[in-house]
Automatic annotation (TrEMBL):
<keyword id="KW-0547">Nucleotide-binding</keyword>
<dbReference type="Pfam" id="PF13959">
    <property type="entry name" value="CTE_SPB4"/>
</dbReference>
<keyword id="KW-0067">ATP-binding</keyword>
<feature type="domain" description="Helicase ATP-binding">
    <location>
        <begin position="79"/>
        <end position="253"/>
    </location>
</feature>
<dbReference type="InterPro" id="IPR027417">
    <property type="entry name" value="P-loop_NTPase"/>
</dbReference>
<comment type="similarity">
    <text>Belongs to the DEAD box helicase family.</text>
</comment>
<dbReference type="InterPro" id="IPR014014">
    <property type="entry name" value="RNA_helicase_DEAD_Q_motif"/>
</dbReference>
<dbReference type="InterPro" id="IPR000629">
    <property type="entry name" value="RNA-helicase_DEAD-box_CS"/>
</dbReference>
<keyword id="KW-0694">RNA-binding</keyword>
<dbReference type="GO" id="GO:0003724">
    <property type="term" value="F:RNA helicase activity"/>
</dbReference>
<dbReference type="InterPro" id="IPR014001">
    <property type="entry name" value="Helicase_ATP-bd"/>
</dbReference>
<keyword id="KW-0690">Ribosome biogenesis</keyword>
<feature type="compositionally biased region" description="Basic residues">
    <location>
        <begin position="1"/>
        <end position="13"/>
    </location>
</feature>
<protein>
    <recommendedName>
        <fullName>ATP-dependent RNA helicase</fullName>
        <ecNumber>3.6.4.13</ecNumber>
    </recommendedName>
</protein>
<keyword id="KW-0347">Helicase</keyword>
<dbReference type="GO" id="GO:0006364">
    <property type="term" value="P:rRNA processing"/>
</dbReference>
<comment type="function">
    <text>RNA helicase.</text>
</comment>
């Protein structure tokens, strides 16, 4: 029997063949690509076009689709070296295209390694700020659109768990250092053992004091066998930094070293000398004179930014105003960044959070109201304009005391800067408007004091004392220009902390300018009280700050912020002359316990003292020493009799005289008691008489006259129960119709029952009275129990009468 042909085999074979053929073809092209890279010599090769570079087709297509044609200097030199697998230290002016210089090698490295999502993390790109990380990620998604890698952004703003779930399958991550470290420490699915390439954008910033610990810890997680690329406009060749990152024989590519300056030639740089107290006037005048421009204004801290923004906003200069600082929420930061980026004419007040790397299109002016901490910061700030061969202008405001030192520093880096003066007719004075605004708005006053404190603090912590000298600044005038009635007194910390702070860059010191700051915040445990205090201060001035602003603060007042919950003053018992005095002085609810032995009163004004109150042992001293007393046969307590000594007895006079004195005293006491007893008996008799009259009137069916009614305690509702009773038809006895007894009936019956509680039978009595006969009953009606001796006598007499 002929065997049946296997129909599956012929089908499978071509498929397998096609797959292996495809794989083979890919391998061949990868080998060719690798050969091209190896043979590419940037010094001799033509690098004027991207198409001349040895790049894979997905990367080349991505670059073309993003409309990049010719590589910039840094790109032309760095990309071929990086493609060869070398570590790079890249330094190029701001806006010269460094982002592409490291993104292209990243894509190519993973492409040539045929990286898949199952290989773990292949490339890690670290940025110092969230804004820069977002921007880098956007460029990556643009030029990498024809690749099949998965890429992620790790900058915080979402929950760690939410981010962690997605990290496991990412091939490329763009991150900020602090957040990435958190994931490396806690996210189990994140596999970094295979990491191929590490990139540090703005490397000098990432390697400085502010990020030092985070970066060192982060690098410890990564494998040593990897390629490392470091890029910045202000790159250093510090050996210590290179060893920290285990760079191997790195290629130093600096495209501006031979050039005249480290800033773009298309950038016009100016400075003007304006005293610290006039800076806001000058800024306002500047904005008013450049309403058709896109302006970026730098301040040294978030507090400065907020104060300037809030005041200028009220003055309506005639251009959209934005403000950006690290303390804002991530979504708000992103929204402001994109709104400002899209604007043609606008003014953004910002901290150094956007000083580095951020690529706002077409910024006309960069204004530095507060001087930068060093020349590098200056270069990065002014680098937000005149990007990629476009024109741009920058102006730096300097206090007269800062001029000399700052110019010296700028000259050392060959920065061409010219002095300019503000035209008289362009000067604006907004001091008075600010003063009245601050006077009216306590929140603004609070902000002004914070701005003052943070500025003075930042100057105090500056490392370069040749430029920044606190003593030469007119702080009173500065406080006045912020609308404050006087310069707040500031106490600076001493010792270790200051040393640490001085080593830190000012960017790191300003509020949350970077990822580092959020790390600092995380480390500091904030209690509910802290949060409550922060909240309170947002719109209400505390006493402390009122004093601070009024300039009346002293060290004790300063300290009050620290001991928010501490007992300010312990009230001692002897703070008051009498207990009554204490009661009127202390808040209601305070307990005061007077010791029996004449001790000072115990005042319960705190939890601790209240607790003490519960301790019997502690309270013993307030009970006094106790007195010895005896009880007589009648149970009355009195001091025990003691036999008087003979001498004491003689001192009181003769025995007869003492006896007489005693008799007289006792007689007087008896007389006194007799008078009061008689008065009491008289009153009782009168009451008894009145009660009898009422009873008789009721029994005869007559309402008693109001005047004859005895005064009874009225219930709370003010109704006299007797008056109520009198208004009812008197039934001459118990009303009972045999039906349901209503409430009224109950009320009616009650007094009768009470009055006759001792009655044996009232029917006979009634009959006898009606017949005018004298009752023969032996039962005597006793309406009241006898109280006094006289009552008993009267009762006895009645019995005898019978
Ligand atoms: N080859 C290129 N062709 C055209 N434009 C380019 C090219 N490379 C970069 N650019 C543009 O130049 C601008 C600046 O690029 P990039 O942000 O990479 O500069 P940078 O050197 O990183 O600046 P910084 O030092 O401020 O971070 C961007 O708008 C970018 O789109």
């Amino acid at each position: 029997m002929p065997s049946r042909p296997d129909k599956r085999r012929p089908h499978q074979k071509p498929k397998q063949d096609a797959k292996s053929l495809k794989r083979k073809r890919e391998q061949v092209s990868l080998d060719q690509l690798q050969d091209a890279v190896d043979q590419f010599d940037p010094k001799t090769a033509d690098t004027t076009k991207f198409s001349n570079l040895p790049l894979s087709s997905p990367t080349a297509s991505g670059i073309e689709a993003s409309h990049f044609q010719a590589p910039t200097d840094i790109q032309a030199r760095a990309i071929p070296e990086a493609l060869k697998g070398r570590d790079i230290l890249g330094a190029a002016k701001t806006g010269s295209g460094k982002t592409l210089a490291f993104l292209v090698p990243v894509l190519e490295k993973l492409y040539r390694a045929r990286w898949t999502e199952y290989d773990g993390l292949g490339a890690l790109i670290i940025s110092p700020t969230r804004e820069l990380a977002v921007q880098t990620f956007q460029v990556l998604t643009k030029i990498g659109r024809f690749h099949s890698f998965s890429a992620g952004l790790v900058i915080g703003g979402k929950s760690l768990k939410e981010e962690a779930e997605r990290l496991g399958r990412m091939s490329i991550l763009v991150c900020t250092p602090g957040r990435m470290l958190q994931h490396l420490d806690s996210t189990s699915g994140l596999q970094v053992d295979n990491l191929q390439i590490l990139v540090l954008d703005e490397a000098d910033r990432i390697m400085d004091m502010g990020f030092k610990s985070a970066v060192d810890a982060l690098v410890e997680h990564l494998p040593k066998e990897r390629q490392t690329l470091l890029f910045s406009a202000t790159q250093s060749r510090k050996v210590s930094d290179l060893s920290r990152l285990s760079l191997k024989d790195p290629e130093y590519i600096a495209v501006h070293e031979s050039a005249a300056a480290s800033t773009p030639e298309s950038l016009q740089q100016h400075y003007l000398v304006t005293p610290l107290a006039s800076k806001l006037n000058t800024l306002y005048g500047f904005i008013k004179a450049n309403l058709k421009s896109k302006i970026l204004v730098f301040f040294s801290s978030g507090k400065q930014v907020r104060f300037a923004f809030e005041t200028m906003r009220h003055l309506r200069p005639g251009v959209p105003l934005y403000h950006l600082l690290g303390a804002q929420k991530q979504a708000q930061r992103m929204q402001i960044t994109s709104s400002y980026a899209a604007s043609k004419q606008a003014c953004l007040f910002a901290t150094d959070v956007v000083a580095r790397g951020v690529d706002f299109p077409s910024v006309d002016w960069v204004v530095q109201v507060d001087a930068p901490e060093d020349v590098d910061t200056y270069i990065h700030r002014v680098g937000r304009t005149a990007r990629f061969n476009k024109d741009g202008k920058a102006v730096l405001f300097l206090d007269p005391s800062e001029e000399e030192g700052m110019l010296k520093r700028l000259e050392s880096k060959k920065i061409p800067i010219k002095r300019v003066n503000v035209r008289e007719n362009k000067k604006q004075a907004i001091d008075e408007s600010i003063q009245s605004m601050v006077f009216r708005d306590p929140a603004l006053k609070y902000l002004a004091s914070k701005a003052f404190i943070s500025y003075v603090r930042s100057i105090h912590l500056q490392r370069d004392k040749e430029i920044f000298n606190l003593k030469s600044l007119d702080l009173e005038a500065y406080a006045a220009c912020l609308g404050l009635p006087g310069a707040p007194i500031i106490h600076f910390d001493k010792g270790e902390d200051v040393k640490k702070l001085k080593n830190m860059s000012r960017a790191a010191l300003s509020d949350s300018d970077s990822d580092f700051d959020s790390e600092k915040k995380k480390r500091k445990v904030r209690t509910k009280t802290d949060k409550m205090f922060e909240r309170t201060n947002q719109d209400v001035l505390t006493d402390h700050y009122t004093k601070l602003i009024d300039g009346t603060t002293d060290r004790a007042a300063e300290d009050s912020e620290d001991d928010f919950l501490a007992v300010k003053r312990v009230i001692e018992g002897d703070d008051f002359d009498t207990v009554a005095d204490a009661k009127t002085t202390l808040p209601s609810g305070t307990k005061i316990i007077q010791g029996l032995g004449g001790e000072e009163p115990f005042i319960v004004d705190s939890k601790r003292r209240e607790k003490m109150l519960k301790s019997k042992k502690q309270m013993l001293k307030f009970k006094g020493k106790g007195d010895h007393i005896v009880f007589d046969d009648e149970g009355t307590a009195h001091h025990p009799y003691r036999i008087q000594g003979e001498e004491d007895f003689k001192r009181d006079g003769s025995a007869e005289a003492q006896r007489q004195k005693f008799v007289e005293g006792e007689t007087a006491k008896v007389k006194e008691a007799d008078i009061s007893d008689k008065a009491l008996a008289k009153e009782k008799r009168r009451e008894k008489k009145e009660r009898r009259k009422i009873r008789e009137a009721m029994e005869d069916g007559l309402a008693p006259a109001a005047s004859t009614m005895p005064r009874l305690e009225t219930p709370d509702d003010g109704e006299d129960p007797l008056a109520f009773l009198a208004s009812l038809p008197v039934n001459n006895g118990v009303h009972n119709d045999g039906g349901d007894s209503s409430g009224e009936e109950e009320v009616e019956q009650r007094p009768r029952k009470k009055a006759k509680k001792w009655f044996e039978d009232d029917s006979d009595d009634e009959k006898n009275r009606k017949k005018g006969k004298k009752s023969k009953s032996k039962v005597i009606e006793i309406t009241e129990e006898p109280d006094t001796l006289e009552d008993y006598e009267a009762l006895a007499a009645g019995l005898l009468d019978d």
